[in-house]
Amino acid sequence: MTTLLSEAATRSLEERLIAWFTTLRSDGSPHTTPAWFIFDENFIWIASGQRNRKVANVLGDPRVSIAIDGSASSPLVAQGRAAIISMADVPQMVLDGLARKYDGWDARDNSIDGERVLLKISIDRWLLGA
């Protein structure tokens, strides 16, 4: 069951630029990387190259955690499950949201990491910041 976020926490998610995204390797050890993200009131979305370690980790174990960069007095930390979504199935509003937040960035751009996917993170619970 997801905890509803306060209006201030939701606004903060819209303003903050970096999330620290943690997946689990096959041996159970954590793998943490910075990521650009958007929050759409139901999910957190992160774009990635399909060949990246975080995608392979999610294929093996969908459990993830995410910490949103911000002030020490109001951290946002959550646990959830990630699903890998092909670009053909990503809602346009998600692509538009990423472009708005990151100065026109096109999450479909394959020039850096190769073929792209989006990770759709369903939040099971907010540990901090709700």
What is the element layout, followed by pairings?
Blueprint: H1 7-15, E1 19-24, E2 30-35, E3 38-39, E4 43-49, H2 53-60, E5 63-68, E6 76-86, H3 92-101, E7 116-128
Antiparallel strand pairs: 1-2, 1-5, 3-4, 4-7, 5-6, 6-7
Task: Walk me through what this model shows.
The chain is of the alpha+beta class and 130 residues long. The protein has helices spanning 7-15, 53-60, 92-101; strands at 19-24, 30-35, 38-39, 43-49, 63-68, 76-86, 116-128. The chain has a 7-stranded antiparallel beta sheet with strand order 2-1-5-6-7-4-3. The longest helix is centred in the C-terminal third of the chain and has 10 residues, at 92-101. The chain is globular, with a radius of gyration of 14 Å. It starts with 6 loop residues before the first helix and ends with a strand.
- Rounded to an integer in angstroms, the radius of gyration calculated over CA atoms is 14 Å
* Stretches with pLDDT under 50, minimum 5 residues: none
β-strand amount: 35-45%
Structural class: alpha+beta
The oligomeric status of these chains comes to single chain
Number of helices: 3
- If strands are numbered along the chain, what order do they take across the biggest sheet? 2-1-5-6-7-4-3
Please tell me what the overall shape is: globular
Task: Calculate the mean pLDDT score and round it.
Answer: 89
Helical content stands at 10-25%
Number of strands: 7
Distance between the termini: 13 Å
The largest sheet, given as strand count, sense and whether it forms a barrel, is:
7 strands, antiparallel
